[in-house]
Design a protein that fits this description.
Helix 3 packs across helix 5. The chain is built from 11 helices and 11 strands.
């Protein structure tokens, strides 16, 4: 198998930050989220390596789970990291299939980030799911809907592999039941899962033999021009990963140029509840963090789905902020993460 680049934006990450800073020091910075991304006027994008990329075999108990990277589309460098729980599961196509999209405001992050690798290996073993973690292209080099396109193409690739009974992917296809498909993600990844689901639900035939059974949306990254209460006054935990300023910057970098935060990709409620009634939304689990600036927006989204007649399961995790399950940036985050995984397992198996 060809070598997979561990980051779709590798050409834009400086090998030596100091040298890179000197090279672009004269170019004015037009957008920046400190420590995560800096966009210069000349178009250069710098993403400091704040979280390490790790290989698929990193820190894994092979008795519990195996992990492997696979190409989906070499032309766009679209790839996925697949986690297969090993213990006591036979090759009888019995395990649910969970396709996961990482967070990062559409602008940063990778399926190879150590924090996602650890979280998803644990999620696979805890829930008994085959997990396909998609490494989609990032903004601002690739603004929306590129991430949605990559998500949709990843699902179509899975369909192709299942339909042809691909021998190259037998290591995970032999374990999972493709008619028990779930889309999941956190933050921007949850946004991607939701919009990819909407695209897929427009034509059920496009999925066969896959069958979409549900969505798992962890602190979904939505926005809007009008501020919610938690956006205006939420008490943030120390080292919060998502501030209101950072949220606004991510949207400016990822939405089509000139779009407001009431663009439907950002604000799914902009068209009103009537629009939601027309959508074929599968059973949905939404995980909300109490100290997240997105808390109220997430709850409004859940209430709107319920009002539109959709099946929604909402769970609030107390005393933790945005991305607590990935960054473990509070004392109770690890316990809350395990509780979340138990809830996800129950939702998938119901």
């Amino acid at each position: 198998m060809a070598t997979i680049s561990m980051d779709t934006q590798l050409n834009h990450i400086p090998a030596a930050p100091n040298k890179n800073h000197h090279q672009h020091g004269s170019a004015a910075t037009v957008e920046e989220i400190e420590g995560l991304i800096r966009v210069s006027k000349d178009g250069h994008v710098e993403r400091p390596a704040i979280i390490p990329n790790v290989p698929s075999t990193w820190s894994i108990d092979k008795n519990l789970v195996m992990s492997k990277d696979v190409f989906i589309d070499k032309l766009t460098n679209l790839w996925a990291r697949i986690y297969v729980p090993n213990y006591y599961y036979p090759n009888d196509h019995s395990l649910p299939l969970l396709v996961y999209f990482h967070g990062g405001g559409f602008c940063v992050g990778s399926a190879a980030w150590s924090c996602y690798h650890e979280f998803l290996a644990n999620l696979a073993t805890t829930t008994g799911c085959v997990v396909v973690s998609v490494n989609y292209r990032l903004a601002p080099e690739n603004r929306l809907p590129t991430a949605y396109d990559d998500g949709f193409n990843a699902i179509m690739w899975i369909k192709q592999q299942a339909s042809t009974n691909s021998s190259d992917n037998k290591f995970w296809l032999s374990k999972c039941n493709v008619s028990s498909l779930f889309l999941a993600g956190d933050s921007a990844g949850a946004n991607i899962a939701y919009h990819v689901s909407n695209r897929l639900s427009c034509n059920n035939a496009v999925l066969r033999p896959l069958r979409l059974k549900g969505l798992v949306l962890i602190q979904p990254f939505f926005g809007g021009e009008a501020r919610t209460g938690s956006e205006k006054s939420s008490t943030q935990p120390p080292n919060s990963v998502l501030t209101l300023s950072a949220s606004d910057t991510y949207w400016r970098l990822s939405l089509p140029s000139g779009s407001s935060r009431d663009h439907p990709w950002c604000n799914p409620l902009a068209g009103g509840v009537a629009r939601l009634r027309d959508l074929r939304v599968p059973a949905t689990m939404v995980c909300v963090a109490e100290m997240d600036i997105l808390r109220d927006r997430n709850l409004e989204f859940c209430n709107a789905l319920v009002g539109a007649g959709k099946k929604v399961e909402t769970t609030m995790y107390r005393g933790v902020g945005h991305a607590f399950q990935i960054l473990h940036n509070s004392q109770s985050s690890r316990a809350q993460t395990q509780e979340m995984m138990s809830h996800i397992k129950s939702f998938i198996n119901q």
